[in-house]
Amino acid sequence: MSPENYRFDVSEFAPRRIFDMITEVRVSNPEVVMPQAAARRKRTRLTKDGKLTLLACDHPARGVTNSGSDPLIMGNKHEYLGRVLRIMTDLSFDGVMGPPDIIEDLLILDYLIQERGGESFLDDRVLLGCMQRGGVAGVVGEIDDRFGAYTAESLAAERLDGGKMMFRFVADDERTLLTIDYCARAVTELHRRGLYAFVEPLPQVFVDNRYKGNASVPILVKLANVSAALGESSQHTWLKISYVQGFEQVVKATTLPLLMLGGEATGDIAPLLRDFANGMRAGGNVRGVLVGRNMLFPGDDDPLAAALAVHRIVHEGMSPEETVKQMAKDRDKNMDTLTRLFG
Hints:
Elements: H1 10-13, H2 16-28, H3 33-39, E1 52-56, H4 77-88, E2 95-98, H5 100-115, E3 126-130, H6 152-157, E4 162-169, H7 175-192, E5 196-207, E6 210-213, H8 217-228, E7 237-242, H9 247-251, E8 258-261, H10 270-280, E9 286-291, H11 293-296, H12 303-316, H13 320-330, H14 339-342
Helix pairs in contact: 2-5, 4-12, 10-12, 12-13
């Protein structure tokens, strides 16, 4: 979809020296994280219009480093974080979800920006912490996805808005039940602190020595019901559900708000835009997206242009065809956001 001879260059937007400045703060003044988190202006309500566009930045934390044909691209933190910043410093996407290192990288950069007279890009945004990542990809037993990142207590201490968790549903692996139990306990702990729980049931099957998606209407209807019932209360629970053909039947499974996920990056965002537009029309409880790889690595295209296209579909009801036209105008928009402050 990107124009011929165009390729987004993360170093032009976020030069390596900015990456190194974050490391320097981690070495010389790591204590800035908590005061920065305490000073962040939070939203009074989770959504402004009942909808959310959230960037998922948790895949490398469980050892998933491939995107497209490159087996290590998401393991390059300069490349990865630079793309996260490309989207998040624009202020359009509602928020971001990530493990502690990513969230704290953002807080440190926010500190550095304000130290140089710039405005916070984290004020009035939704920040969610990934609570798991113990099920490292490729390790025997990864379906037993232990909680090894944020806890409900640490999310509250860092003044984040909630926590995200998932269970990979593999019908012939009893470790699925262990992970469901971890998620149920986490929903309860978040609820007791007034924090939101974002639960993702992900049906998978083991094929060719790896786990692959296995989503269908019947299994998603089942898992939406299971997920909605986890914990002592569903008051603060949102679900993250794969879009599939027949999504209208899936959304009837619960009254809880649903966010759609993006899945593996394909390099072509056009089908994803169509799916999201169709999903937003599938039912009143479909309230947006929690999407990662397809926004961060949309082929050779600009991550911000891709993110703004999705944002317009969710918040403005724009058609995929209209957003594609708008992407050409958004490409390379405000590429000096960081360099004008950091040189």
